[in-house]
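Section 5.1 Outputs to date
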Amino acid sequence: QVQLVESGGALVQPGGSLRLSCAAPGSFFSINSMRWFRQAPGKEREFVARQTSGGSTNYRDSVKGRFTISRDNVKNTVYLQMNSLKPEDTAVYYCNADIFVGRVLDNYWGQGTQVTVSS
């Protein structure tokens, strides 16, 4: 059973920075794309960033230039560095990954971590 474990959410002032982490403990599988999504109260979950196993990245327009996704393939961990945070970035952030367990490719979600941007 693959589990994604997120950490790093917090309360931060506008203009501040946070780094989220998402780890997939274990070595019995391989990971393809890893993504971050977020969901604000009363809104639908939305895509934030993605990094493929080859290192390609893409972002939603509103976070380009402020957020950076990266991954450590040895640790099976993906990070989201968030700079110049705005109140509209407030949301629960979810990690998502496409993971091979043996020959079976499936999609997994983390439990979410709360990011609150407020003065």
